[in-house]
Design a protein that fits this description.
Helix content: 10-25%
Number of helices: 2
Structural class: alpha+beta
Order of helices and strands: HEEEEEH
Shape: elongated
Distance between the termini: 11 Å
Length: 103
């Protein structure tokens, strides 16, 4: 979701694309949850109550009762892959950044 991100300017994108692990916003930290029955989930915390965690995965949003959680961990790595610009040529990098800033 990039809506409104362009208002932060090109520096915002350069910081987040060139070195995605330098500063990771809480909304973009991957959470890993293992339940007592051995099921492993990973995704972004959509919401949390005293009794459950709502986790947005790549394909769905699941609600996991806290009583069922065996282990919970927040990743220190960004969801943005490192080195994404390295596979692009100079012109492609410029066009990508122009697109991102304009949206």
């Amino acid at each position: 979701e990039l809506t409104g991100a362009g208002q932060h300017g090109i520096r915002y994108f350069l910081e987040n694309v060139v070195d995605p692990n330098a500063v990771i916003g809480a909304d973009f930290q991957l959470t890993l949850i293992e339940t007592r029955d051995g099921t492993a989930w990973n995704g972004l915390v959509a919401s949390e109550t005293p009794s459950a965690v709502s986790l947005k995965t790549l394909t769905e949003t699941v609600v996991i009762p806290k009583a069922d959680i065996k282990h919970r961990e927040t990743s220190e790595r960004s969801l943005m892959p490192e080195g994404i610009l390295e596979a692009m040529g100079d012109r492609e990098r410029i066009e990508l950044l122009k697109y991102l800033v304009s949206h």
